[in-house]
Amino acid sequence: MAKKLDIAFEEAYKISSTTSLKLPPDVMxxxxxxxxxxxxxxxxxxxxxxxxxxxxxxxxAWFQVNQISEDDAKKEYIKLxxxxxxxx
Length: 88
Prior knowledge:
Layout: H1 4-18, H2 25-40, H3 52-64, H4 70-84
Helix pairs in contact: 1-4, 2-3, 2-4
């Protein structure tokens, strides 16, 4: 049975991945970093995309949250979604 945190994280991901709201770049990077930390931990991989500078920013954002656990990253991701997207 899935934990409440996992269910809330999946719901937050659905909201963020289907929004048409244009978020500021720093918020997008935070969402990316927390999502990657929550789903991959410190198993880094090259970000997808063709823009090297954007990929560098994404990877750097992920590195900046590498000290937190996957569960804590899920909690932070949910907080961001609730703050910026919950009542769109």
